[in-house]
Design brief:
The complex is a heterodimer of chains A (250) and B (498). With 250 residues, chain A is of the alpha/beta class. In chain A, 29% of the residues lie in helices and 15% in strands. In chain A, helix 6 links the parallel strand 8 (167-171) and strand 9. Chain B is built from 17 helices and 14 strands. Classes of the chains: A alpha/beta (250), B alpha+beta (498). The complex binds iron/sulfur cluster. The site of iron/sulfur cluster has 14 residues of chain A, from helix 3.
Chain lengths: 250, 498
């Protein structure tokens, strides 16, 4: 016991004190900035593996971008990735970054239902459903609760049963074989409930878009409350996105 | 000649693979497996001129070669099974049966594999899996999943229990099927295919991506330079350290040892953060590329890594010492979830799941790829086949991997600034690529047509072999020990389901 306490003691402080201002180490690829330099736009479109780039003017859809950084390597003066990890939004449109834009991605307050912040701002219990996920977003969602990110301090937690949940977090491109279990899980969650899509596979299908093994119909049936881009999502993107969604509003 | 003998990542003309009559094909491959230094690394089929071509790949672990042979059969034909002679083939024949409707007269367990979208029998669906049933007043069934209590991937576990004791477990997979093998053909750009490889199993990104690029470079007749090999080898070992550490944390969680869970958990953070420092992604997506490396691992980066290990090791050692001597932990780890050596070799387990049962099976030593021949790798072997063995392997492999990375960085290859670009893939060729990921051997096989276009791509995650080991491990254990058994294997759902 004494030994355990000793070990515990010399771990020091591991949690990130202010989750909204934490800096990510290294060369994280977060929100990109697209300059107005003239380039061969078709080349840019052609190199992107997930069809995230669109032209005239150049746009990157963070709901599709797998953050491989290849466009920035090929056109370093055109595209730069910043370390801004606050890239979640509740409006699909807002994930699209346009040429010449350099402003933070925000939530659209008009689209947030009143009950979301009225009921969930101090406590949000989530049920996670991996529907064709590759276990990378799942690992990062687990990391959100570890001693470093410690999402639990905001009352945000994953729970074992949909019956205890206030919403579901979907990862993966939604395989045909998971379509029914996903629906059952959603139906078993009591109202009011929210839906969060974590990762580009969930948001757009990612590299799996168009595969005949998917069935994404569920996603068009309901209002999505939060889109969290990334492949995988970064825990800071996820936690900050949710904090914005449930923060107290008038 | 019954087979063609090839090296790991050797590109050969597809026509040079001997085509045998089915009886001879069966006899040859199953008799090889009578000796313990042979094991099946892949056995699969694909549509070929209106028929089904079967390709069997048997590794010779002593010589470091792979025996490739093939046979052509009719769709919906009824055959005698390899499985009848050696259980290690069971999952491969299940897949062949599911995909092409080939029937076997003497397969013991011809169950659905993953309900792939292009399966032969569309009436067989994930909702109507034929579970093994038992007629009994005393016994009861417990069904868990597909969605589990934690944040993990879906799969269904059906137990038959006698009170608290598990008599039988059947594992139904396929929920994660995304049609990856087909997408390798559909998506024509190299970057798309690399991205697919990165997303086969997001916890084994370095493993699957290295396997793909090794294969692709071989198809393009491209010899990767030392710097590329170095970066890939470091990435593979770092992935092993990261996931093993996370697994030790999760195993502590499952036996309610909070301190171990937190400390191993926080020790994993700097390791995966290092991937971010190196390549911008915590799970190494974006790092490994065919014929190039955007993120050279130069001296400063290596020093950062050494510093990381200097901090990691004392805390890790201390936590291990405590965990591995704590009676409450040992009571849950020892003699729980045993897979005997006999069972493990009969079902053909690979990687960690083989080594914990006393089987010396490790591609890094038998068929070395990338920089492993220079490391002269000695696999870590345990003999009890229980949860404790699986925990110990992780602990020791972490230390070994740290040692390897330290050793490799004594001699950092200089950055190669004038690489040639990849030529197009060779026509009418076949390549098999094996990589020892942290779970075990990953195997990718590719075939090209006369224009050098991919006509078939096959992915095998080590989990294909190993899920049955979990089912056997829990027999006669208490059902409350299932979570720790499951975590101690930590097999991939998406890697299996593809
Ligand atoms: S970083 Fe995003 S936009 Fe750029 S090439 Fe990769 S996927 Fe496309």
């Amino acid at each position: 016991m004494i030994k355990n306490i000793k070990i515990l003691f010399h771990q020091g402080k591991q949690y990130i004190p202010d989750i909204t201002k934490a800096e990510v180490p290294g060369i994280f690829r977060g929100r990109p900035i697209i300059s107005s330099e003239k380039v061969n736009e078709q080349e840019l479109v052609d190199l992107c593996p997930t069809g995230a780039i669109n032209t005239s003017p150049v746009k990157i859809d963070l709901g599709k971008c797998t953050f491989c950084g290849e466009c920035a390597f090929a056109f370093p003066n055109k595209i730069k990735f910043t370390t801004d990890y606050k890239i979640s939004s509740n409006e699909r449109e807002r994930l699209i970054i346009r040429e010449g834009e350099d402003k933070p991605i925000e939530l659209n307050p008009d689209l947030i239902r009143k009950e979301t912040f009225e009921y969930f701002s101090g406590s949000l219990k989530l049920r996670q459903v991996s529907a064709g996920g590759d276990n990378s977003c799942e690992l990062e969602l687990n990391a959100c609760g570890n001693v470093n990110f410690d999402m639990g301090r905001f009352g945000i937690e994953f729970v074992a049963s949909p019956r205890h949940a206030d919403g579901i977090v979907i990862t993966g491109s939604v395989s045909e074989n998971m379509a029914e279990p996903l629906q059952i899980c959603y139906d078993a969650t009591p109202e009011p409930k929210i839906i969060i899509l974590a990762g580009i596979d969930a948001i757009s299908g990612g590299i799996f878009e168009g595969s005949p093994a998917l069935n994404r119909r569920f996603l068009s049936k309901y209002k999505i409350d939060l889109y969290v881009p990334g492949n995988p999502i970064h825990p800071l993107t996820f936690i900050n996105g949710i904090l914005e969604l449930i923060k107290k509003r008038k | 000649m019954n087979h063609l003998e090839v090296k790991n990542n050797q590109c050969i003309p597809v026509l040079s693979i001997p085509v045998l009559g089915y009886e001879q094909f069966l006899e040859h491959n199953t008799s090889l497996l009578k000796e313990s230094h042979y094991h099946c690394v892949n056995y699969y089929g694909f549509r070929f001129q209106g028929k089904i071509k079967l390709i069997c790949c048997i590794a010779n672990d002593k010589e470091g070669t792979i025996y490739i042979s093939s046979s052509i059969v009719e769709q919906h034909q009824t055959l005698s099974s390899f499985t009848h002679h050696h259980l290690a083939f069971h999952i491969f024949e299940r897949e062949i049966h599911e995909n092409f409707g080939i029937n076997y007269t003497d397969h013991t367990w011809l169950k659905p594999t993953r309900f792939s979208f292009n399966r032969a029998d569309k009436n067989s669906t994930v909702a109507n899996y034929p579970f093994y049933k038992i007629e009994s007043e005393e016994l009861h069934e417990v069904g868990v999943g597909p969605i589990h209590a934690g944040v993990i991937e879906p799969g269904h576990f059906r137990f038959i229990c006698n009170g608290e004791q598990i008599l039988h477990l059947e594992i139904q997979l396929g929920f994660q099927h995304r049609g990856i093998e087909n997408l390798f053909l559909e998506k024509k750009k190299l970057l798309q295919r690399i991205t697919l490889a990165e997303n086969i199993s997001g916890d084994a990104v370095s493993g699957h991506t290295t396997c793909f690029v090794n294969l692709w470079e071989s198809l393009c007749n491209y010899k990767a330079d030392e710097e590329l090999q170095y970066a890939r080898t470091v990435a593979l070992e770092l992935e092993r350290i990261a996931i093993h550490t996370g697994d030790l944390s999760a195993m502590c969680t499952d036996v309610a040892y909070q301190l171990g869970s937190s400390v191993f958990g926080r020790l994993r953070t700097p390791v995966i953060n290092y991937f971010q420092i190196w390549c911008g992604n915590r799970l190494a997506k974006g790092l490994i590329r065919a014929g190039k490396n955007h993120f050279p691992l130069h001296k400063t980066l290596c020093d950062t890594l050494h510093k990381l290990f200097d901090d990691y090791e004392p805390d890790f050692d201390e936590m291990c010492k405590e965990t591995f001597t704590l009676p409450t932990v040992l009571a849950r780890f020892e003699k729980t979830g045993i897979v005997t050596t006999e069972q493990a070799s009969s079902i053909g387990t690979v990687g960690m799941s083989a080594r914990m049962s006393g089987i010396n099976r490790d591609i890094r030593s038998s068929h070395p790829h990338n920089f492993y021949s220079s490391l002269n790798h000695q696999p870590i072997i345990k003999n009890h086949g229980d949860v404790y063995s699986r925990a110990q392997i992780r602990k020791e492999e972490i230390k070994q991997s740290i040692g390897y990375i330290r050793k490799l960085s004594e001699n950092i290859p200089s950055e190669n600034k004038n690489r040639t670009i990849l030529s197009p893939p060779s026509s009418d060729s076949f390549v098999i690529s094996l990589v020892e990921g942290w779970r075990g051997e990953i195997c990718h096989c590719a075939i090209t047509d006369e224009k050098g276009e991919l006509v078939h791509y096959k992915v095998k995650d080590p989990s294909m072999h190993n899920w049955l080991a979990l089912a056997l491990a829990v027999r006669n254990n208490e059902i409350s020990d299932f979570p720790i058994c499951n975590k101690s294997f930590d097999l991939s759902y998406c890697g299996h389901d593809l």
